[in-house]
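Hey Z.,

So I finally got round to the coenzyme A thing we talked about over coffee. Here's the setup:
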Amino acid sequence: MTQPQSQLRVRAAGPEDAAALVALNNQLVSQTDLMVLLPIEPATGTGQLRALLERQAIEGSRLILIADIDGAPVGMAIGTADPNPRYRGVVEMEVGVVQAAWGRGIGRILMQLVERRWTERGARRFQLRVLDRNERGLRLYRSLGYQEEGRLRCNVAMPDGSFADQVLMGKLV
Ligand SMILES: CC(C)(COP(=O)(O)OP(=O)(O)OC[C@H]1O[C@@H](n2cnc3c(N)ncnc32)[C@H](O)[C@@H]1OP(=O)(O)O)[C@@H](O)C(=O)NCCC(=O)NCCS
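And the result:
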């Protein structure tokens, strides 16, 4: 018997997705130390995140896309614009995919869709920070056209007590 094909869907997240985003954040925290994320307490954090998402929806300052497989969130990408007009057109990018779904093109699709939507709104530069030991992330970003622009030495405390460098990457459109 053939297995049914799993269905990937990418959608924009709204305030109603606060609980799903908290769960996804906490899943990523438990699976990888390559994202500089903190765990969020669902009982208190969900309402706070919902309020933040409501404000950002009004301001139009942040775009979050969620990838679902068969209705379950497996990844997200976030593009955030700086409200300072001197930084107009600059978008800070973040992406995370749960481990079971790595290597299936989901990170790439999420990044491309966030970039496309922001480019349609006038973005001229995308930028991000990635730990220098994150080979998968570095390869993804290079292949999307990001270039290494600098290094923040010993910028991130790692669980083993060491400090890791972050690479600054940017891409002009
Ligand atoms: C980095 C991450 C977002 C990539 O998402 P993904 O869905 O696994 O990536 P994709 O399947 O779209 O692959 C995109 C690219 O990643 C790279 N990649 C994928 N699997 C890889 C592997 N095993 N080793 C090295 N690079 C790999 C490749 O460049 C690949 O492109 P290609 O298939 O055309 O060669 C995901 O692995 C992740 O969330 N990791 C943990 C959190 C994290 O590191 N987030 C980014 C912090 S800056």
